[in-house]
Every structure is written in structure tokens, then in C-alpha cells.
Design a protein that fits this description.
about 240 residues; mainly beta; globular
């Protein structure tokens, strides 16, 4: 972990405090155009998400009317019933997206993979910068929303399942994250600009509770519509 990563992590509560906990849990309210486009309008509109902080794992419970909960580990995704029995599973989930475009519908396991990968990354940012093999470097100033942010390029190692290995975050003068950029490779390399706001502090850790994702243009700017995904988090807990 270099000095850039360390300063951002310290601003969000510090690595020592973060490592006191192994899970983050939150009530999740979602919207946006993506879910209907993928054939799953309403499935995950309201649920509870839990992610691990010390390994790559995430779960949504309930998983709409399709399952009691999902189980995402990066290399495997599954849907489980109330008794914990596996209803369906895929041991190489990323491969199932080969040839997909933004408009290609998802089956239930693909939705679980996308949602698990997304929320694990979101809730572990920026502390994931301390993981082995994650590299970051500052790329200069960026002016947006009447503020001067710093753009930080991130490269994730092969061992982490993320939307794209090359990503970026933007931080304000307070070093809190304002925006994330990535290309969703499993949806035709669709570029997204992901804005975060409305921070709250839970057990000494600063979390944004509001997330809005829009299309990103080649020059790095975002479009004001469509709203691809909206995420609101409530009752965040660390344990």
C-alpha cells in the first residue's frame, strides 16, 4: 500500500479500525434502468446485502422471490433456499457472460454474480486498496461539481473478481471518495461513472449512503441520463 492509498484509507477511518470487523451489512434500496433492461425489474429493489471485509464474499437476502439468499465468492455464485440448500450454482460465472452486450438479458445466477461483485467492491472501497496486488497512482486534478478532486488510477490483480481490472476513483480535498469509474466487462464493456455522497459514520468508518451511476463518455465526463443504477443504503452495521 503506497502513500496515496494510505491517505485515502485514513480519511475513511483507517485500516486498523476497518480490520476490527469481518462483515458489513446494510439494508439496500435500488432503482435505475439496468434492472428492467436485464429482465429483473423489481427483483432486488429492496433487500439486505452483507459482504465480507477479509475475503471476497457477498450475499443478498432475500434474493427477490427467486431464492432466500445469494452466495457470491468471485469464482462461484449460488442461490440458496431457506434451509441453506443450493437451488442453482455456477462454478465459472464470468464465463457465462461471454458475448454479452448491454442489452443481453441475465438469468438469475448472472444477476447474483453482478450484484455480488458490485456490492462487495462498493462496500470495501477504499479499503480494498490495501489488498495484496492492488496498485494505485495519482493522475492529477479533476474539476467537477464545483470542487477540485484528485483522480486515482487503480489496477486490480487477477485474483480479485471486479468489473474491470483498470478502474479509477476520485477523492475530494477531504480525501473522501466522490466518484468511481469502471467498465462493466460482463455487460459489453459499458463505461460507468458512479457517484457517491451522503456519508455517514458507523463504528468509526465513513460510508457513503447514496450511489448514482450514469453512462461515462470517452473524455471521462458523465451523462445526466439515463440513471443506470441508484443505490441507497440504510442501517449499515459492522461486525
Amino acid at each position: 500500500m503506497n502513500a496515496v492509498a494510505q491517505s485515502i484509507i485514513e480519511a475513511h477511518g483507517g485500516l486498523a479500525q476497518w480490520r476490527k470487523f469481518s462483515t458489513v451489512r446494510a439494508d439496500l434500496v435500488q432503482g435505475g434502468a439496468l434492472w428492467a433492461l436485464k429482465g429483473h425489474a423489481g427483483t432486488l429493489d429492496r433487500t439486505t446485502v452483507t459482504v465480507a471485509t477479509d475475503r471476497q464474499w457477498a450475499s443478498h437476502a432475500p434474493f427477490g422471490a427467486l431464492a432466500a439468499r445469494s452466495d457470491f465468492t468471485g469464482s462461484r455464485v449460488a442461490l440458496l433456499d431457506q434451509g441453506g440448500e443450493v437451488m442453482a450454482a455456477h462454478d465459472d460465472p464470468r464465463a457465462s457472460f461471454e458475448g454479452h452486450t448491454l442489452e443481453t438479458p441475465w438469468d438469475a445466477l448472472q444477476l447474483a454474480f453482478f450484484a455480488g461483485c458490485a456490492m462487495w467492491t462498493y462496500l470495501n472501497t477504499p479499503f480494498v486498496l490495501a489488498w495484496d496486488g492492488v496498485e494505485c497512482e495519482e493522475q492529477g486534478a479533476w474539476n467537477e461539481q464545483g470542487e477540485e478532486w484528485r483522480k486515482i488510477a487503480i489496477h486490480y490483480p487477477a485474483g480479485l473478481e471486479v468489473f474491470s481490472k483498470a478502474q479509477a476513483i476520485y477523492v475530494g480535498s477531504d480525501k473522501l471518495v466522490r466518484r468511481l469509474d469502471y467498465d462493466v466487462e460482463i455487460a459489453g464493456n459499458t463505461p460507468g461513472a458512479h457517484y457517491v455522497s451522503d456519508y455517514t459514520t458507523v463504528s468509526g468508518i465513513h460510508f457513503p449512503t447514496k450511489r448514482r451511476i450514469y453512462p461515462r463518455t470517452p473524455d471521462g465526463k458523465s451523462l445526466s441520463e439515463p440513471l443506470v443504477v441508484s443505490i441507497d443504503l440504510h442501517d449499515i452495521t459492522l461486525s
